[in-house]
Amino acid sequence: MKNIVLPVDFSDTTDVLIDGAVDFAKEVMGKICLIHVAPADIGFAIGDMGFQYFPEIEKTEIAEELSELNEIQKRIISKGVACEHILKQGISAEIILNYAKEKNASYIVMGSHGRSGIYDVFVGSLTKDITKKSEIPVVIIPCHQ
């Protein structure tokens, strides 16, 4: 079975990306390795006293994101595709590429929902970083709404 790394960010295009990834996984008889990368500074805020760390904010946010990953995993499995998930913190492109190596992935599936710049509008800045640095094929799912 081929491992397919599927990074998700819980944006409004995530559902379209998941549907495309599930269809692709069925075509190649693959297993989806779902990953969400949370920012390393998720519990930090700036206030009157400068940067402050609030561990309860980080804990709550991570718990919510893990819950969302669990729901996505259930959805994928209900469509007949094997799935596992992981949440990591740090720099997205670096973590996703390392995870793909760790899972000996055959593909990385990304969405094409950019936010800025002409290239980024069609592809996405994270997707651009991944496609430039990846040693394995990157499948891009159109996620425009």
From TrEMBL:
<dbReference type="InterPro" id="IPR006016">
    <property type="entry name" value="UspA"/>
</dbReference>
<dbReference type="InterPro" id="IPR014729">
    <property type="entry name" value="Rossmann-like_a/b/a_fold"/>
</dbReference>
<dbReference type="Pfam" id="PF00582">
    <property type="entry name" value="Usp"/>
</dbReference>
<dbReference type="InterPro" id="IPR006015">
    <property type="entry name" value="Universal_stress_UspA"/>
</dbReference>
<feature type="domain" description="UspA">
    <location>
        <begin position="1"/>
        <end position="142"/>
    </location>
</feature>
<comment type="similarity">
    <text>Belongs to the universal stress protein A family.</text>
</comment>
<protein>
    <submittedName>
        <fullName>Universal stress protein UspA</fullName>
    </submittedName>
</protein>
